Amino acid sequence: MKHSSAGLNDLPDEILMIILKKLSNIQVLYSLICVNKRLHAIVHDPIFTNCLTLMNYVSVDSIDPLSDRILDQFCLQILPAIHHNIKWLNLESSSMKRILLPTNYPNLYGLGLYDIEIETALSFFSDESCLTSIDKNQILEFVIKHTRYGKVNLWKDINSRILAHIFTTFSNLQYLNF
User: Is-contact 158 149, C-beta < 8 A?
Assistant: First the structure.
């Protein structure tokens, strides 16, 4: 019996999409964008670009930022190319300014912030923050998880201040997970 091998480019688009959907969309975008015209077109599909989680889950309670090399490629090449497809972004606090400031996200309706310190959460809603590049009226869903209180002792007062900022910043908010 003669052996034959099929390469990635030999697979039909439908089979390739099934395989790629099993992988992390961040890894698919980072690894396959600009490889060739066919893969470039496939990874621009909304399946891979409408919801991005730009962080690494180490465990249920631990989140790490993406490496600088990967984050640089996303901020300089990938996000500007797919910004119009992105509907939801999950970000960890140390990289949120790098991701939100340089690119406009016209279809963004959901935002998740993870592993964020209280001080960062409070400053996030100031006029000088990275929210200036987002149309605040288009955010319908907002999530803040894994909040760290650090040295803050009056956490109930801080929570109410953050919630007040959230409700005044996102006037069309329909869902909040805090």
Answer: yes
DSSP for residue 148: B
3-state secondary structure of 110: strand
Tokens representing 171? 């006037």
Tokens of 157: 């007062």
What count of other Cβ atoms lies within 10 Å of the Cβ of residue 152? Answer: 14
State the greatest distance between any 2 C-alpha atoms of the chain, in Å, as a whole number.
74
Q: Residue 174 corresponds to which amino acid?
A: Q
Residue whose entry in the numeric block shows the structure tokens 């509907």: 87
Per-residue pLDDT reduced to its tens digit, 57-103 = 766 667 888 899 999 999 998 999 899 999 999 999 888 888 988 78
Those residues with Cβ within 8 angstroms of residue 76's Cβ, 6 or more apart along the chain or in another chain: none
- Burial readout 68-97 (b: 16 or more C-beta within 10 A, e: otherwise): eebbebbbeebbebbbebbbbbbbbbbbbb
Q: Enter the pTM of the model.
A: 0.83
Token digits of residue 174:
């329909």
DSSP β-bridge partners for residue 104: none
State which amino acid sits at residue 79.
Answer: L
